[in-house]
Amino acid sequence: MTGLLPDDKKISGEKVNKKYKENITTEEIAACELSWFKGEIVVVDNLNTYYEVFPKLLGSDLLGFDTETKPTFKKGQKNSVSLIQLSTDNLACLFRINKIGIPQELSDLLSDPSVKKAGVAVHDDIRFLEGVKKFTPNGFIDLQNFVRDYGIQSSGLKKLTAIILGFRISKRQQVTDWEAEQLTEAQQIYAATDAWVCHQIYRKLVNGHAV
Asked: What is d(CA 25, CA 3) in angstroms, rounded to the nearest whole number?
């Protein structure tokens, strides 16, 4: 996909970092301490809130990125993306695009090559977002590819979090109604955590430390 940063691709001849385990078992993950995002979470479900909080993301050169979609239980049916999550170290913005769409400033941020957006399986996320609004994706880093340069073969956010950050995240809220009138506290924490750990994984791999 166009728009991925060079560091999302394997550099020929680069020495693979063997600091991390290649894989991790379910039992090993279960033995890790459970953790979650403990910073500020802002649910953006109207334009007033959007214009108030969006500037707080500007100036960050790295954001954790994820999306959520209302589940469907009918074969072959796929719902539109309900939520875009963008996170810094201590702020997670949950943009309810089923309510506000994708405003131009948000679209511009997703197209900005100077801002890294780290996530898992971002190709699928982008494809579904383009069904909501056409934009030119830039600056996205797919951690499933990026971690291979560090000798990690596992994929999936739960495994990558345990291997790289050393704690366990809950996925209990994954299959819940992301278009409910109000998101529950548990949904908000889940959504914020998924974006935040992507931010932390990338930063730890590149800089050797997270928060």
From this structure: 33
Distance CA 85, CA 119 (A): 10
Model-wide pTM > 0.70: yes
- Confidence at 73, pLDDT banded by 50, 70, 90: low
For every residue of 141-161, DSSP letters joined together read EEHHHHGGGGT----SHHHHI
CA 74/CA 54 separation, integer angstroms: 35
Return d(Cα 65, Cα 192) in angstroms, integer: 9
- What is the C-alpha to C-alpha distance for residues 175 and 79, in angstroms, rounded to an integer? 13
Counting Cα atoms < 13 Å in the Cβ hemisphere of 179 gives 13
CB 125 within 8 A of CB 72: no
- The answer to whether 60 touches 114, Cβ cutoff 8 Å, is no
Give the chain's length: 211
C-alpha closest to that of 9 among 136, 121, 145, 116: 145
**CA 74 and chain centroid, separation:** 26
- Locate 39 and state its tokens: 């910073």
Residue pair 161/168 in contact (Cβ under 8 Å)? The answer is yes
